[in-house]
Design a protein that fits this description.
about 220 residues; alpha/beta; D-Maltodextrin-Binding Protein, domain 2; 2 domains; 4-stranded mixed sheet; 7 helices; 11 strands; globular; disordered N terminus
């Protein structure tokens, strides 16, 4: 399992159904979001093993989970945090050997505690907090998108798009409306729910360029 634990910088969970990886293996297979095979981030791995791991890409969390639960063989998977429980409940991941991850001690406990139990740590946070607002600068002034109140602005009714991802939608709704507890939620909590259109992975440029949408949220919180 030594090469699996070296994948701290590029992945999140170890797949228990994966083909075993060790120092003699020519490849380590990572199931990841497209674009995360970043050279600089992988340099320590390349220095040690002479090449990058092998990557297989997915477009969203549902696709990744379906792929793994259908028997796809990989060593490491990089889901969003909200998807980790279903991997664990399905018996698809095993705990990391954190003794082989020197940088684990520098990860804030608040980021690992929700994914830790008596068996061990099932998820290593890799990236966070880069969800952002994209907007058409030709039709939307910068001051209108200076805060999340843009999602409740009647001016943009019918011209807002958000990811087809419930985690992102509700998180943004909470921040835009000041809601701090699920107990405060009702149908009115989703900001501008009559103004929204859903979009899939990597669709922001198309939406802002040709669909008539002027504001969109994308990324990963």
């Amino acid at each position: 399992m030594s090469r699996k634990s070296l994948a701290l910088l590029s992945a999140a969970s170890v797949l228990s159904l994966a083909v075993a990886a060790n120092a003699a293996d020519p490849e380590l297979t990572v199931l990841d979001w497209a674009g995360w095979e970043i050279d600089g981030m992988l340099q320590p791995y390349v220095d040690k093993h002479g090449q990058k791991p092998s990557y297989v890409f997915f477009a969203d969390d549902d696709e990744a989970f379906q792929k793994v639960s259908s028997g796809f063989k990989a060593d490491v998977v990089h889901p969003c945090a909200a998807s980790v429980p279903r991997y664990k409940e399905a018996g698809l991941v095993e705990p990391w050997d954190i003794s082989k991850i020197p940088e684990f001690a520098n990860i804030p406990e608040r980021m690992t505690a929700p994914f830790t139990n008596e068996e061990g740590v099932f998820y290593i946070p890799t990236d966070y907090a880069y969800t952002a607002i994209a907007y058409n600068s030709e039709t939307v002034p910068a001051e209108d998108v200076a805060s999340l109140s843009v999602f409740t602005n009647e001016k943009y009714a019918g011209r807002i798009s958000m990811p087809d991802n419930t985690d992102d939608v509700w998180s943004l709704a909470f921040m835009a409306t000041g809601v701090t507890s699920w107990g405060q939620c009702d149908r009115r909590t989703v900001p501008g729910r009559r103004r929204l259109a859903a979009h899939g992975a990597s669709q922001c440029p198309r939406l802002l360029g040709r669909s008539g949408r002027t504001v969109a949220a994308d990324g990963d919180g």
